């Protein structure tokens, strides 16, 4: 079964050329065949088939077909689904079952999407390679010795391997965009507040956003449209009107498009294949009528430092709730209250999560708060001003998604700072809260995927995806 897009699938379902049940069986078989790749933590074998049959009945009885009727989706395992395991790829939540649904899940369900299972990730979404998972590595779909990116590595690999049509991820500093870039697919992080975070397990609350991984921009637009919008259960969700993203996409034309190219996104140290492919695509768009405008985003070198101070601070507070008393794992050595806390957390969390809790506690501590946390907040504001100003002059800011192609499994695990650099180009959009997308550009000389990263102004998801679609098409 070759399915090029959701539109293609939908027309076949509606024409009764194929049933939802057949589609789900097709995907489940593929998922089982890829079992050793660790892409899914939980597979909904029974539930997905049952749901498919319900939808098939609805079609035959002439019921209202939702916007995502029959779309087979994978969900990152830090998004809550009632009655299902919610592990965050952590030992501390290994057997935890969610008692409610995330708002995003309810909205997808309302439009007749089908959920195939929960995908692997870096523990609590902390990482860039999926190597920080208590459930094992996920190999890159194009080279099994390399990483798929992270933290939504399972979701990216699921879509790239055809084990789901579309997947949800979460993006705090690049976790949807960077794995999309590493797996040759589209990865969208919406504006902060565009999608409710209710039911998304918090890592850094002022950065976290649910995002979409898909093969093409149209599918991403459709899924975004369904999930977006105010939610009374998340006070940070935005009242900004949800528009028709698909229509906005089709209104974007390359002719006269102003593409801002920051010199800071093309440093000397940039991998030469990545630079060549990204610049080649930009030049092609210029030939088609776009205008390439050199811009500068001063102080970009502080992005990683500011990001890791702010997110670890928020994480240290958010993760305090995992204490052995309320959720999941409790240590056998829980003689007294303090031993229960200490031992449950020591045994339950992985190395990277513990590193971040310690770092975050440190930057928030009395003597260091002003030097680190407050300073980083000030840097955040400076970034917001700079990106706002830049986007007054151009329609979109373009650069590579990652400074290097997918790296080898184990290559960066010994040096956390080296690993953090994988996010150097994705972190700024998260610091400022603007929407951004990674577009697949094809392959380098080693046959590894390369992605282009685009940032638009707040709530310009339609325009962003429209530009991304032109890039994908111009290849
Ligand atoms: N790789 C980044 C980090 O480790 C981003 C993670 C994310 O976006 N969830 O923090």
Give descriptors for this structure.
475 residues; alpha/beta; eleven-stranded mixed β-sheet; globular; binds glutamine
Mean pLDDT: 97
Radius of gyration: 21 Å
- Number of helices in the DSSP assignment: 16
Largest sheet: 11 strands, mixed
How many distinct beta strands?
Answer: 11
- Oligomerization category of the chains in this entry: single chain
Query: Could you say which small molecules are bound to this protein?
Result: glutamine
Helical proportion?
25-40%
Structural class: alpha/beta
Terminus-to-terminus distance:
25 Å
The fraction of residues assigned to DSSP E strands is 5-15%
Poorly predicted runs are none
Order of the strands making up the biggest sheet: 1-3-2-4-6-5-10-11-9-7-8
Write up this protein.
- This protein is an alpha/beta fold and 475 residues long.
- Helices cover 39% and strands 13% of the residues.
- The chain has 16 helices and 11 strands.
- It has helices at 6-14, 20-33, 45-60, 103-110, 153-160, 177-182, 217-227, 245-250, 272-287, 303-318, 337-348, 351-364, 369-393, 416-420, 427-432, 461-473, and strands spanning 40-43, 72-76, 114-119, 166-171, 186-189, 209-214, 258-262, 291-295, 396-400, 436-443, 449-455.
- The chain has an 11-stranded mixed sheet with strand order 1-3-2-4-6-5-10-11-9-7-8, sandwiched between helices.
- β2, α4 and β3 form a beta-alpha-beta unit.
- The longest helix has 25 residues, at 369-393.
- The radius of gyration is 21 Å and the shape is globular.
- The two termini are 25 Å apart.
- Bound molecules: glutamine.
- Glutamine binds at residues 125-128, 151, 170-175, 203, 311, 423.
